[in-house]
């Protein structure tokens, strides 16, 4: 009988197959190490639900005595995660676990410190420890080698630029090394940077300046935000004509109006490049030349946020149904948000985002749409990030106890004043006490309040009472009629040479009339006391029909309205009386400068304002912001 029969071969084959199956799907699964589970990071009080609950591991930055040279990072690469000890407990093995940092908000202290960064726990339990580092200006060097280099997937590298010395005033600022400032400008307005460079940016360890050209300004590198826009887009869209001229002639002075049309193209590549310049930064703040930023308030704010949560935050606006963070007040982006954005940029910029830019109006609108594609939601941070100037903001109870992190539309002089106040406040109160809108009111507004100011528009706008057409002419006719009657009476008295008795009768009549008038006024006051109710501001024009007769009647009307705080009057047309129940300062209006507006007079009820603002006492700082 042969050794290998067909039946024996079949048995051997089946046995080998079974051994292979169990080896592949059985033993290897038992010996394999389980994947670590990332923690789910919810927002404070579990009010916000994110589309992606598992937040990517953050980039861990190591602290050096001097600033290290950033490692070049190519498109599509993710920051290294292999040495991230916070996920496996290594960070807590070297010391005792500390308690949470005080936030000043009682309900957050009850969380047991779960929001406290675990990398701080490895520092011997001293979560408030700070490190001295050299201030570094970051530079991007795009690699150019072929026709595809200029598109959105160009490789980005990072290199350390010469360090700059921080202002002595800023040496005690905690957390400054974790925040990067991104300043957007253009060649047409680059002169405005001088104020920022000697004030705010002298305090910031990490920042980058982006423009529509690559250059150097006062020794600081300026990066071309448009460099990575594809050549096809630059040829196709007419707004790049000025850019092409500027590129070929470095001495060319661009037209500011034409350069504004290029602003929308800067946002997406600028944000992407800034992230790859400094991927270990925890927060990135986008500002422009006219944005005033409180460095102390910003650092206190970001220290209360978890940078692993994808924050895209700013003063909310709506364009064509899309909610966005307005560019002027500043836009706050967390590392968690930019990790998701960077991945989406690699996938969608060339195919979707850049083709859409030609159809959209604004860069902040396109950034909002890109963040939506990256599954990053918008958080409205009003009033912390503010689109107004101090003299145009409506001060009310809503903003009174909130920190003033930013202002907008500030010229060079206003930026200097704001930074001077910031330094004085911080020197007096330290880096841990926020500067509130209440404090801004006492600094900027209160010293200028007065019962009446000529040639001044204080922007009162809660209601407007307009005199009917022909009202001033009717008032003049009535005044002329009364003067005529008075003259006739005087002439009659002299002509008749009345005796003392007749004169006494004539004199008694007016006294009797005056007594009657006083009785009527007392009766009206009693009626008003009985009918005292909150005023309906929508119907004030009906109740006070003659408020626009003059500035005096306008001021008197404000006094009669219970919660009116200020008024303004213009002689435009037959007169307009504007009343306000929020506090604004406004600005001087030169007489005759604007023909259609007439002459303005304004006033404030100073005693009433003192009483109202005292009732707005701040029991806690309103750091919270809402979706």
Q: How does this model look, in words?
A:
The structure is a single chain. The chain is an alpha+beta fold and 627 residues long. Among the domains are: 170-450, Spore Coat Polysaccharide Biosynthesis Protein SpsA, Chain A (Alpha-Beta Complex); 453-468 and 537-604, Hepatocyte Growth Factor (3-Layer(bba) Sandwich), CATH 3.50.4. The chain has 18 helices and 21 strands. Strands 1, 2, 3, 4, 5, 6, 7, 9, 12 and 13 form a ten-stranded mixed beta sheet that branches. A five-stranded antiparallel beta sheet has the order 15-21-18-19-17, with helices on one face. The chain has a two-stranded antiparallel ribbon with strand order 8-14. Helix 9 (335-357) crosses helix 10 (363-373). The longest helix has 31 residues, at 500-530. The radius of gyration is 35 Å and the shape is elongated. The chain starts with 5 loop residues before the first helix and ends in a 13-residue tail after the last helix.
Can you give keywords for this protein?
627 residues; alpha+beta; Spore Coat Polysaccharide Biosynthesis Protein SpsA, Chain A; Hepatocyte Growth Factor; ten-stranded mixed sheet; five-stranded antiparallel sheet; 21 strands; 36% helix; 14% strand; Glycosyltransferase family 31 protein; signal
């Amino acid at each position: 009988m042969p050794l290998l029969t067909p039946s024996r071969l079949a048995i051997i084959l089946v046995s080998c197959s079974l051994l292979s199956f169990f080896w592949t799907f059985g033993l290897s699964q038992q010996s394999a190490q389980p994947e670590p589970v990332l923690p789910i990071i919810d927002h404070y009080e579990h009010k916000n639900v994110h589309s992606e609950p598992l937040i990517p591991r953050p980039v861990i930055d190591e602290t050096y005595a001097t600033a290290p040279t950033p490692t070049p990072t190519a498109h599509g690469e993710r920051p290294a995660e292999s040495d991230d000890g916070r996920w496996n407990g290594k960070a807590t093995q070297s010391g005792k676990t500390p308690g949470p940092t005080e936030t000043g908000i009682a309900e957050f202290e009850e969380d047991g410190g779960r929001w406290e960064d675990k990398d701080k726990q490895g520092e011997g339990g001293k979560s408030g420890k700070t490190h001295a580092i050299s201030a570094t200006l970051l530079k991007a060097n795009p690699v150019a080698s072929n026709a595809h280099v200029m598109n959105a997937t160009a490789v980005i590298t990072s290199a350390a630029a010469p360090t700059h010395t921080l202002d002595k005033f800023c040496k005690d600022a905690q957390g400054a090394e974790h925040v990067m400032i991104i300043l957007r400008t253009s060649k047409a307005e680059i002169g405005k940077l001088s104020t920022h460079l000697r004030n705010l940016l002298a305090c910031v360890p990490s920042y980058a300046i982006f423009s529509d050209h690559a250059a150097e300004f006062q020794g600081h590198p300026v990066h071309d935000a448009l460099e990575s826009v594809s050549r096809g887009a630059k040829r196709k869209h007419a707004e790049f004509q000025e850019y092409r001229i500027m590129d070929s002639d470095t001495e060319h002075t661009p037209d500011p109006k034409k350069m504004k049309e290029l602003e929308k193209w800067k946002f997406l590549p600028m944000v992407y490049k800034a992230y790859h310049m400094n991927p270990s930064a925890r927060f990135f703040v986008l500002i422009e030349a006219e944005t005033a930023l409180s460095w102390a308030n910003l650092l206190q704010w970001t220290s209360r946020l978890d940078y692993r949560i994808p924050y895209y935050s700013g003063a909310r606006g709506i364009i064509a149904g899309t909610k966005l963070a307005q560019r002027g007040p500043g836009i706050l982006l967390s590392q968690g948000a930019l990790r998701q954005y960077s991945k989406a940029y690699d996938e969608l910029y060339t195919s979707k985002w850049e083709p859409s830019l030609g159809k959209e109006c604004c860069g902040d609108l396109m950034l909002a749409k890109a963040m939506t594609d990256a599954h990053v939601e918008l958080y409205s941070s009003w009033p912390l990030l503010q689109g107004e100037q101090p003299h145009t903001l409506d001060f009310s109870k809503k903003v009174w106890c909130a920190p003033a992190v930013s202002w907008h539309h500030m010229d060079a002089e206003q930026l200097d004043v704001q930074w001077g106040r910031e330094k004085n406040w911080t020197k007096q109160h330290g880096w841990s006490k926020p500067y509130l809108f209440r404090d801004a009111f006492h600094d900027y507004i209160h010293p200028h309040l007065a019962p009446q100011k000529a040639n001044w528009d204080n922007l009162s706008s809660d209601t407007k009472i307009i005199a009917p057409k022909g009202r001033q002419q009717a008032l003049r006719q009535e005044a002329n009629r009364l003067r005529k009657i008075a003259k006739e009476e005087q002439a009659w008295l002299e002509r008749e040479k009345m005796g003392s008795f007749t004169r006494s009768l004539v004199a008694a009549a007016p006294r009797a009339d005056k007594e009657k008038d006083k009785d009527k006024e007392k009766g009206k006051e009693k009626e008003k006391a009985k009918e005292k109710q909150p005023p309906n501001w929508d119907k004030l024009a009906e109740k006070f029909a003659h408020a626009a007769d003059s500035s005096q009647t306008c001021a008197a009307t404000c006094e009669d309205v219970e919660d009116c705080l200020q008024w303004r009057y213009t002689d435009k047309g037959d007169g307009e009386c504007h009343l306000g129940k929020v506090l604004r300062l406004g600005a001087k209006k030169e007489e005759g400068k604007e023909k259609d507006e007439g002459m303005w007079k304004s006033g404030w009820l100073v005693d009433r304002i003192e009483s109202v603002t005292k009732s707005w006492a701040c029991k806690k700082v309103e750091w919270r912001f809402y979706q």
